[in-house]
Amino acid sequence: MPCTTILVGKKASYDGSTMIARNDDSGAGHYTSKKFVVIHPEEQARTYKTEISHLTIELPDNPMRYTAVPNAEKGEGVWAASGVNAAQVGMTATETITSNPRVLGADPLVVYQPAEDGKEEVPGGIGEEDLVYIVLPYIKSAREGVKRLGSLLEQYGTYEMNGIAFQDHDEIWWLETIGGHHWMAVKVPDDHYVAMPNQLGIDHFDLEDALGEQKEYMCSADLKEFIETYHLDLSMDGNFNPRDAFGSHDDSDHVYNTPRAWFMERYLNPHTKKWDGPDADYTPVSDDIPWMMVPEKKITVEDVKYVLSSHYQGTPYDPYAAYGDKSWKGAYRSIGVNRTDFLSVIQMRPDHKGDNGILQWIAFASNAFNVLVPFYTDVTTTPEYLSNTTGEVSTDNFYWANRMVAAMADASYKSSIFHIERYQEIIWYQAEPYLKDPFFYFP
């Protein structure tokens, strides 16, 4: 999906939480209705069949309960997207990423081939539709998540390039697929955050650690040979950069991807680098914007919501700008777009490692006009207004109510944004007491 992700290490967050957050966006021209549910072990299939690739996978017989944000309508697969399991492990999948012809020619994507001309169909690999469903119910740490998904990628392959985040109370891991069967993963340093548009992002990788002790890096077993065989390392000084080797630097990236990374890091590190002007260290079209940084101050959930709702406020690129030079207005793909289906922020708090320790913040529809609401994940069900979404537009569920608010506010941005901001503020402060006591009563 054309999404945006931010990951926050526990020493980079305001309260010691690990946080993984992702906007789940539909493709241009349509919406995908979503619901927030709990999937119980008895509801989890033991034989799983993919919709897109026609692949059959036998799953373990010991799944755990987990939260998920699947598609509300049946027929196109599960797309569980983001959740937390009973072992207190979080996962969000996926951030669709890019590659280049050298990689895709060396290790082609595993694409479904329908039956034709007397030949039987050939199943494809696994993809975003499947990943949370076939991984999250079976892992007990973020590190285990990387290993399980890596094994599945090597066994079945994939038909698309993706980035996937795993977290527990102590660690965050980010995995990126490489071609049809290869992958690499990095443990996010505790004092860093990661800003991810739809572009392969990892810009440093220690192959020795990944193929040895695996303290901070992991990868497919033959990745080193793959790089050497196909001459993928483009470094002049021997300092291997995966983004150069496996990623893309297309003109379209400079409209669709690099500007988003630029805005997020410009907001969280306004003084660390120079982001504007002719002598800027990084501009919206820079190909070398850091994949991760140490923030200038600790990051809050509100910060995460702001950057994932942004449309280049305070810059010449804001599509809603009503003042100044408008020649660059709307030049770049915003983060908070009208086709966002949901935002999930999974917050694992260090002082609540037992029951009620994990929050999954949920917002539906366009982030510029919605509100992020916290929900506990150690539950057996979710409120009906979150789980009863259908394909029919209705004010009876939170998804479509938010869609309608966004449609009206977008068309009247200047007169609506004040009211939207006050609404967001009220929900935030009313939710605050429940973060400490789930049984708090707000009069």
UniProtKB/TrEMBL annotation:
Reaction(s) catalysed (UniProt annotation): an L-aminoacyl-L-amino acid + H2O = 2 an L-alpha-amino acid
Protein EC: 3.4.-.-
One Gene Ontology term of the molecular function aspect: dipeptidase activity
InterPro entries: C69_dipept_A-like, Peptidase_C69
Superkingdom field: Bacteria
Keywords, ordered alphabetically: Dipeptidase, Hydrolase, Protease
Gene Ontology BP terms: proteolysis
NCBIfam families assigned: C69_fam_dipept
Family: Belongs to the peptidase C69 family.
UniProt-recorded name of the protein: Dipeptidase
